[in-house]
């Protein structure tokens, strides 16, 4: 079976477009492209990435446009690279000189991973600074509560069961239990 060039494209939000990445991957010779709209800060929940890694066979090449499309933390990147190496799968980037078969390519890959993680950490710091500034001005109140605590407490007081409340309000039984524990600390 001939080697396959497999593409993986990712954007962080549903409003972003995958079009530019998929066009670049197609131009790079990818015959199978996996796409998803998920944050790259973790590999958890990235089903298309898992599908691409599972689909690839020894001798294949996994291709991305940039290394930050694959991972935004050094630990995740190293885990993915290790998995690719063990399976005999090469990694290529269309916009960066990545070649995992050379020492220089490996070093460059590791440096890019460090910078991707650094960029993510800087973004988080700026976001937290912005939230703190907005809170200080009284502009930011946080997200609206998704659970009507007063309704849960009203139903508990009326003697309704936790499972029944959870089902009626579309929340988990654990959420009802936590609210009950907070509202009625002496009760068990």
TrEMBL record:
SUPFAM superfamilies assigned to the protein according to its UniProt record, in alphabetical order? Homeodomain-like, Resolvase-like
Q: Which domain of life is it from?
A: Bacteria
Q: Does the keyword DNA-binding apply?
A: yes
Identify the InterPro entries for this entry: Homeodomain-like_sf, Recombinase_CS, Resolv_N, Resolvase-like_N_sf, Resolvase_HTH_dom, SSR_resolvase
What PROSITE patterns does the database record attribute to this sequence? RECOMBINASES_1, RECOMBINASES_3
Q: What keywords were assigned to this record?
A: DNA integration, DNA recombination, DNA-binding
- In the UniProt entry, which residues are flagged as the active site? 12
Asked whether the keyword Protein biosynthesis is assigned, the reply is no
Give every Resolvase/invertase-type recombinase catalytic domain span: 4-138
Pfam families, sorted = HTH_7, Resolvase
**Which family does the record claim for this protein?**
Belongs to the site-specific recombinase resolvase family.
| Protein name, entry field | Recombinase family protein
The organism of origin for this protein: Gluconobacter cerevisiae
């Amino acid at each position: 079976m001939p080697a396959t060039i497999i593409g993986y494209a990712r954007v962080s939000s549903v409003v972003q477009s995958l079009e530019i990445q998929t066009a670049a991957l197609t131009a790079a010779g990818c015959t199978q492209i996996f796409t998803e709209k998920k944050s790259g800060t973790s590999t958890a929940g990235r089903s298309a990435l898992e599908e691409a890694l599972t689909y690839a066979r020894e001798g294949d090449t996994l291709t991305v446009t940039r290394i930050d499309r694959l991972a935004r933390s050094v630990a995740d990147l190293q885990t993915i690279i290790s998995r690719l190496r063990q399976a005999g799968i090469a990694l290529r980037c269309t916009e960066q000189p990545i070649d995992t078969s050379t020492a220089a390519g490996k070093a460059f890959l590791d440096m890019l991973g460090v910078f991707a993680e650094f960029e993510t950490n800087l973004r988080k710091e700026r976001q937290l600074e912005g939230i703190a500034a907005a809170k200080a001005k009284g502009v930011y109140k946080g997200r609206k509560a998704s659970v009507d605590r007063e309704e849960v407490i009203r139903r508990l007081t009326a003697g309704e069961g936790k499972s029944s409340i959870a089902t009626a309000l579309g929340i988990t039984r654990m959420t009802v239990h936590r609210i009950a524990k907070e509202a009625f600390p002496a009760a068990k």
